[in-house]
Specification:
alpha/beta, Rossmann fold, 6-stranded parallel beta sheet, 5-stranded mixed beta sheet, 17 strands, about 10% strand, elongated
């Protein structure tokens, strides 16, 4: 499919059109949210999140993104990608690389050239190294060194971003989520520094409602890359880095309970703080299936999906049961310490009692209800039929031939009349005969009538006016033809207008019809015209008779006078007609008209054909993708038809066709000049008009058509949904709900825990069903509360603006030791002896003395 470059983004927005279950923007998002991606892995996760949100959020939502990294090429690439609607723009990127860092360690840490305090937290034995523009290369201390070196600039950019987010708030509440890998050099190296700087800034500003969360991606998220997983040395180093990072995060997560603090030193700044690193922190690990580790992209997409919910007004709990309805984001940031302590004491679980760091782990499942895809299929069905209407022949359905001939009638009659007939052309400049006095018999006999001499003078003046007369005829002809073209464009569309013109070069198959064919007929008539000398002969004959004879009878004299006068007039009319036709030929009026019509047709074809084809292909593609999804999800539906059998009528097809034509004609200049056409907005209006007849409960009515044993009409649907209670509707909704619930697969854990460890954790489960489908959701809820699911009623809630069933478990109080990847990380860490860069503070804090987390 070839898309007009300027239209690519607008055509892509067709996928966002919603009519049924249309999400209202009002209160859709949970505002005042800053999501920061650290390093390569964290930034890729946040970039995936931005891709999900960017077309939906508005500046008023105050949802913001930030990337902090050290790899210059990656940052340049994402800024370039942002021009195509993906990636981060220049205002969302902070680089920690500065050129003056490159030679800092060329003579070892003790002799760095910039400032003696810059890296006094690093080991004196740190090796000599040249730092480049391509990142920290997996060395956490290099990452932190780069951050410390550029700190003056970074803090200004970071704090400006924070302040901008805060200034847009009404409640003074700001939530920051830091997403980072734990196994690289940049993200894991600057994780604590970024978090503590944000916390210190909020404290200095006396922000009472600043919450900072973490989302930490374990090393095995990267193992989906074969080149990584098969490199045993790299895997070991990633795991060792991951273990070191988690030991430090463990330490600082409960800093307020220790007799210690966090210290940060740059060239000119020092910060000391004694608060916990995060208010809440979730862990993400890689997942395996039968073919090995799942690729990173899938894991990051799932992470982005959960953060999307934190950005949304996603509720959990049920007010109808325990008045326990809360925002998911509040539950995520909630301090669970008291609840976990009580739970541990109640269960007397020694393993968890010993843990001093609590994380959250999420398992989630989305059961997408394919309303969007169903809409796309229905939209394409009606669009395809309406689009075919743009190619229907005006000669079969309209009065095209009569309209064309009506425009050309005057010229046709002019060219088809005898030479001496009155010229009925409605143009100025023709000779006026009504005021010419008829000569007497005596004047004719004596040759003193002067009639022919007077005509000669008039003809001279007429010849001077001929160019203007022909130009006037051309303007009039073209204007009348264009009126017909415009009329049929409005009724049949541009392709119908091309058919009316009848230009073979514009793809018209029958060139024997249309304006050009009729104009060619006129051109032939003009070429075939033969001047006549008949009236000159009659005049000469009359003069000869008058000269030889003398009529004494008055009646004979009157006949002579009338015959002479009439012959002179006709002689003049014949001469005038000949002059007009000769000038028509000389100025090539019909040739110019044919060329103008051909150019008009070709231009219409050039303007509209590619645009129309792109529009059709875009809608086709959405329908094909939607059909594939629907077939997979609605396996148990009786049919994959979603509108009543009598819904798509000729009237609705005609209305759709008129809407498409209006879209094209209203934007002729935009298409012609390569400007963006608001296709999404216009097509949404057209679709909304088409679907308006479905009425309320649109998604459920579509399901009813698909799952009903018999095909349904509009009347059947209206009866079923016309009252609060309808047994037939209830039975169909139960069958549809069962088809979804029975197909529910295993939940996807964002972090893989060891076998049987879930039983030792406090779990909060929530299930969300869409409130835009109340009858369907009621049936889903009944199934889930029954056997074998036995879900509690207070875990199920209706959420506005959603077309999905979602089930999420949040496990609270998860020690790192419960992760399935913990042992590999600890073993790699214990095996490291000479690698410098595992710990941020090798000098002042020996993290190796902090307990191994696999033995906690």
């Amino acid at each position: 499919m070839i898309l007009i470059d300027t239209q690519k983004e607008e055509f892509s927005k067709l996928k966002d059109i919603r009519v049924f279950g249309k999400i209202s923007h009002e209160n859709r998002f949970n505002k005042n949210f800053l999501v920061i991606g650290l390093g390569g892995l964290g930034s890729r996760a946040v970039c995936a999140l931005k891709g999900m949100l960017v077309n939906d959020i508005t500046p008023e939502d105050n949802i913001n993104f930030l990337m902090i990294d050290s790899d210059i090429s990656e940052m340049e690439r994402t800024i370039e990608d942002s021009k195509e609607g993906v990636g981060f723009n220049a205002l969302e990127v902070i680089s920690i690389y500065r050129p003056d860092i490159e030679n800092v360690l060329e003579n070892g840490i003790q002799n760095n050239k910039i400032h003696k305090n810059l890296a006094n937290w690093m080991s004196p034995e740190f090796p000599e190294i040249i730092i480049g523009r391509d990142g920290a290369k997996g060395n956490r201390q290099i990452g932190r060194l780069m951050f410390s070196n550029a700190y003056t600039d970074i803090r200004m950019l970071l704090f400006d971003k924070l302040q901008a987010v805060y200034d847009k708030t009404e409640e003074g509440t700001v939530d920051v989520l830091i997403v980072s890998g734990v196994s690289g050099g940049t993200g894991s190296g600057i994780l604590s520094d970024v978090a503590y700087n944000i916390r210190a800034y909020g404290k200095a500003k006396k922000w009472n409602n600043l919450r900072i969360g973490g989302c930490l991606l374990m090393p095995d998220v990267l193992f989906g890359y074969k080149a990584v997983y098969e490199d045993t040395e790299l895997v070991s180093r990633l795991n060792a880095n991951g273990c070191a990072t988690m030991k430090e995060v463990d330490y600082y997560m409960k800093l307020s309970e220790k007799d210690d603090n966090y210290t940060f030193i740059s060239k000119d700044n020092k910060m000391v703080i004694r608060e916990n690193l995060f208010d809440a922190c979730m862990l993400v690990s890689g997942r395996k299936d039968s073919q090995g580790y799942i690729p990173e992209g899938f894991v990051l997409k799932d992470v982005a999906s959960f953060i999307y919910r934190l950005a949304s007004n996603k509720y959990i709990g049920n007010n109808d049961v325990d008045n326990d309805r809360k925002l998911l984001r509040d539950v995520f940031f909630e301090n669970e310490g008291y609840a976990i302590t009580n739970w541990k004491m109640e269960h007397n679980d020694e393993d968890i009692k010993k843990s001093n760091c609590y994380y959250k782990v999420v398992s989630e499942a989305d059961y997408h209800i394919p309303i969007k895809e169903i809409e796309n299929m229905c939209e394409n069905d009606i669009f395809s039929q309406a689009y075919k209407g743009l190619y229907r022949s005006p000669f079969k359905e309209g009065n095209a031939e009569a309209d064309i001939k009506g425009v050309l009638t005057e010229l046709t009659e002019f060219l088809g009349e005898d030479a001496g007939e009155n010229i009925k052309l409605n143009v100025g400049g023709l000779i006026q005969y009504s005021q010419i006095t008829k000569p007497t018999y005596k004047m004719i006999k004596k040759h003193t009538d002067g009639l022919r001499e007077g005509f000669a003078t008039k003809m001279e003046n007429f010849e001077k006016e001929l160019p203007v007369i022909i130009k006037s005829m051309k303007n009039k002809l073209w204007g009348a033809l264009d009126d017909v073209i415009v009329k049929y464009m409005k009724e049949f569309g541009p392709f119908g207008a091309i058919d009316i013109i009848g230009a073979p070069s514009a793809g018209v198959t029958d060139s024997t019809k249309g304006m050009m064919a009729e104009v060619k007929k006129l051109e032939k008539m003009m070429k075939d015209y033969t001047p006549s000398g008949e009236y000159t002969r009659i005049i000469d004959s009359i003069k000869e008779i008058v000269a030889k004879r003398f009529f004494t009878f008055p009646s004979a004299k009157r006949e002579t006078e009338n015959g002479y006068y009439e012959a002179c007039i006709k002689e003049m009319l014949a001469a005038e007609r000949t002059k007009l036709i000769d000038e028509l030929d000389a100025q090539d009026l019909f040739g110019d008209t044919l060329r103008w019509l051909q150019q008009r047709a070709e231009r219409l074809d050039e303007i509209y054909s590619q645009f129309g084809e792109d529009l059709k292909n875009s809608i086709d593609d959405l329908s094909i993708a939607g059909s594939q999804t629907v077939v997979n999800i609605l396996k148990k539906a009786k049919r994959h038809e979603f509108l009543p059998t009598d819904y798509v009528t000729s009237k609705r097809i005609g209305e759709m066709s008129s809407g498409i034509i209006k879209l094209m004609l209203d934007n002729e200049a935009n298409i012609d000049n390569g400007r963006v056409i608001p296709v999404k907005d216009e097509m949404e209006k057209i679709y909304r008009e088409f679907f308006s007849g479905v009425g309320a409960y649109g998604p459920e009515k579509m399901f009813t058509v698909a799952f009903s044993d018999n095909k349904l009409t509009e009347q059947d649907i209206n009866v079923m949904f016309g009252s609060p209670v309808n047994d037939r509707r209830t039975a169909i909704m139960e069958e549809a709900a069962k088809a979804f619930v029975d197909d529910i697969s295993e939940e996807q854990p964002l972090c893989v825990l060891k076998d049987d460890y879930k039983e030792k954790l406090l779990a909060k489960k929530y299930i969300s069903v869409p409130n835009v489908m109340p009858y369907f959701s009621k049936a889903v809820k009944a199934i889930l509360m029954g056997k074998p699911y036995n879900e509690k009623e207070d875990s199920i809630t209706l959420n506005p603006g959603e077309i999905e069933i979602s089930i999420d478990d949040i496990f609270v109080g998860v020690p790192v030791s419960m992760m399935q990847c913990a042992m590999e990380m600890q073993m790699a860490y214990n095996a490291v002896y000479d690698y410098k860069g595992l710990h941020i503070d090798e000098v002042n804090k020996d993290m190796k003395s902090f307990p191994d987390f696999v033995t906690i």
